[in-house]
Structures are given as C-alpha cells and as structure tokens.
Prior knowledge:
Order of helices and strands: EHEHHEEEHEHHEH
Number of domains: 1
CATH topology: Rossmann fold
Strand order of the largest sheet: 2-5-1-6-7
CATH class: Alpha Beta
CATH superfamily: P-loop containing nucleotide triphosphate hydrolases
Shape: globular
Amino acid sequence: MQPFFIGITGGTGSGKTTFANMIAQDFGRNVLIISQDMYYKDQRNQPLESRKKANMDCPDAVDFDLLIAHIKQLKKGKSIDSPLYNFTEHVREEKSITLEPHGVIVIEGLLVLSVKAMRDLLDLKIYVDVDSDLRVSRRILRDVKEGREPDLEGSIEQYLLSAYPMHKRYVEPQRNYADLIIPWNVMEKESVETVVARIKSELDERNIKS
C-alpha cells in the first residue's frame, strides 16, 4: 500500500509544526513528518550578510524539485536522504538524514501547497488559519530563540521585508487549495482530533494500518 500523504501549511508562526506533531501522537511509529524548512536551497555561495537578508518566504527559496522527487520515492516504498538546513548560517548541512517510508507521511511548511506538482502528490491538504497578530509574535519569539535572527530588531525587519508581503502573495492563496481549513488561534486539541478522525477514516478505506 502507498503511504497516505498529508500537506499542512499556513502563515509564519501559525503552529504548523506543533499541529503536525500533535497529529503524529495519534499514529505512533506509523507516521513520518517531513519539514519543508529542511529543503531550502543552499546559499553557501553567498556572503553571510546576503544570506541573512535573503527572502525565504517565497517558493523560489525552496528546492521543490528535490522535495517532490523525495515524495515520489517514498510513494514507491523507498527511503530518502533528507537534507538538513542550518538557520544560523543559512546553509544546507553537508550531512543528510535517512528517512524510511511510513503509513502516514506529513509534509509541513510555509509553502507546501504553493506548487501544483506538490499538491498533486498529497492525499489531504490542510491550511492552519491563525490571527495575524498571534502569528507575528510567535515568529519573532521563534526567530530569536532559535538563532534565526540575532535580535528582536532583526526579526521584525525580516518580517516586514519578506514575510508580510509574501504571505499575501504566496501563503494566503493556498487556502484555495486546502481540503480543510483549521482555525487554530488557541491551539485547541479538538481541532487536531477532527483531523485525526478524518485521516483514520481515509486509512480505513485504504486498509492502511494506523
């Protein structure tokens, strides 16, 4: 049986990763989560200052060719060597991580539904919808905590230069391609349970063990 592929997207700071991890808890070892963030294109040929200012919120920043190729491999039951991205240095690591196919495979990220060739490979498409003020505050906290930006000022500047305009241009239109739009301002577990029930129903129809 082919794995069941789920795409989870939403604005920056919407809690996509948290949502994916909460879903995964219901499927134990039979779920694999792939982060679109790991597939950002390598920028090591650019000076560090240029890398810091690069627009990472548009589809051109993501190596979708590689991500799509990896999804097709997983569909065939083959393992992949997933890249690892360093957000402090803004480069792709030299090493990779081997991932094996699972019954349920979740791909989460800012632009997961932005490319048609990507959407066509997904069995269930989800948009996590969160109030913009909450998203901004969560993004800033994440950037500073994880070292993606050196300080509060740098995070706000990056948001204003790329995240905000790219949200309107590329991220928000993904709502039109979603099978489910999940309001998730307070990260209610009930929203996760609704999605889990939908997934389990789909798996039962396919006779995939959950």
